[in-house]
Specification:
There is one protein chain. The chain has 4 helices and no strands. The protein is an all-alpha fold and about 130 residues long. The chain is elongated.
Length: about 130
């Protein structure tokens, strides 16, 4: 029994898979649907996160004791730092004023201790 050519052709067509080539428009449409599905999944995850956050936030509206203590400690440290900076600046200014006063006094003493004859020769005038 020989097979006819038509029977063989029918077997080859059904058993072998031929590649399917898509047009550019079909590829674009598939890409758009994939992108839309990804965006929907992303939005769903975002909504789930927001709903879980809002549930946890609504249960604790007031700040905890540790938050209040941390804020109080931070404010106290900030005040202490400001006081320390003011003290340092005041001390530095006092040292500068003392140094200037000593320099002026030293200059006045040196002028007073120089004999008049040297001052006239050197061209210094009082």
């Amino acid at each position: 029994m020989k097979r006819s050519i038509e029977d063989g052709a029918a077997v080859n067509v059904t058993n072998s898979k031929k590649p399917v080539f898509l047009t550019k428009a079909e590829r674009e449409a598939l890409a758009l649907t994939r992108r839309q599905q990804e965006a929907d999944q992303l939005n769903q995850r975002r909504q789930d996160l927001l709903s879980s956050i809002s549930v946890s936030t609504s249960t604790s509206n007031k700040p905890s004791d540790s938050d209040r203590h941390r804020d109080r400690d931070r404010d106290r440290d900030r005040d202490r730092d400001g006081d320390r900076d003011r003290d340092r600046e005041r001390d530095r200014d006092q040292r500068y004023r003392d140094r200037d006063r000593r320099d002026r006094e030293r200059g006045e003493r040196e002028e007073a201790s120089v004999p008049a004859s040297i001052v006239v020769r050197e061209g210094f005038r009082r």
